[in-house]
Amino acid sequence: KAGVTQTPRYLIKTRGQQVTLSCSPISGHRSVSWYQQTPGQGLQFLFEYFSETQRNKGNFPGRFSGRQFSNSRSEMNVSTLELGDSALYLCASSWTGENYGYTFGSGTRLTVV
Amino acid sequence: QQQVKQSPQSLIVQKGGISIINCAYENTAFDYFPWYQQFPGKGPALLIAIRPDVSEKKEGRFTISFNKSAKQFSLHIMDSQPGDSATYFCAASRYSSASKIIFGSGTRLSIRP
Question: Which residues of A touch B89 (CB under 8 A)?
Answer without folding.
Answer: 42-43
